[in-house]
Amino acid sequence: xxxxxxxxxxxxxxxxxxxxxxxxxxxxxxxxxxxxxxxxxxxxxxxxxxxxxxxxxxxxxxxxxxxxxxxxxxxxxxxxxxxxxxxxxxxxxxxxxxxxxxxxxxxxxxxxxxxxxxxxxxxxxxxxxxxxxxxxxxxxxxxxxxxxxxxxxxxxxxxxxxxxxxxxxxxxxxxxxxxxxxxxxxxxxxxxxxxxxxxxxxxxxxxxxxxxxxxx
Length: 216
Ligand code: DX5
Ligand code: ZN
Fold this sequence. Notes:
With about 220 residues, this protein is of the alpha/beta class. The protein has a single domain (about 5-215), classed as Alpha-Beta Barrel (TIM Barrel). Helices cover about 35% and strands about 20% of the residues. The chain has eight helices and eight strands. The chain has helices at about 15-25, 50-55, 75-80, 95-105, 150-165, 180-190, 195-200, 205-215, and strands at about 5, 30-35, 60-65, 85-90, 110-115, 130-135, 170-175, 190-195. The relative contact order is 0.17. Bound molecules: D-xylitol-5-phosphate (DX5) and zinc ion. Zinc ion (ZN) binds near residues 65 and 194.
């Protein structure tokens, strides 16, 4: 079962509420919220107040991607704001195990994320604890980049590991996913598909329908 997680980074933020309604009416299960701090990545996006506003208007699973340095400083705030899944970057902290425990204690799903050049072997200690693993298929920071083909190796490795060890994490891919590489991404083993520009540039509803048709 595949799940689509449209990344709001590429949406028209002046129309955020309307776009969420379009996702709901097309049975989109997750919505991907990219949080950037200008330190861990060279860009700044949206944060806690936007998660709070979204929580008030939708029951879609809020899939929060924290591209922030030392995420342990903000786990409580994102949980209180209404995030359902909290993804932190393995590269951004030395407190991964503690963060996962804290997210779980707050009743939320924990995700660990790796950048394209980070070996998935570095997150093995977390793989029996997390609910989700997010593989970046572009360098984090900006929407609209091209998928780095080598990152599909990270997806394949994690899919194999999951199978061999009976792990329960969902495997998510983020960056440069389009209709024309979706089949390859699925074949690599990705289960949760983030797409930003491919969903929100042009006709959102038509784009979602095209993705949904390929994600059965
Ligand atoms: C990049 C973000 C992605 C991005 C995906 O740092 O984490 O979620 O918005 O956008 P596309 O699908 O356009 O690459
Ligand atoms: Zn993201």
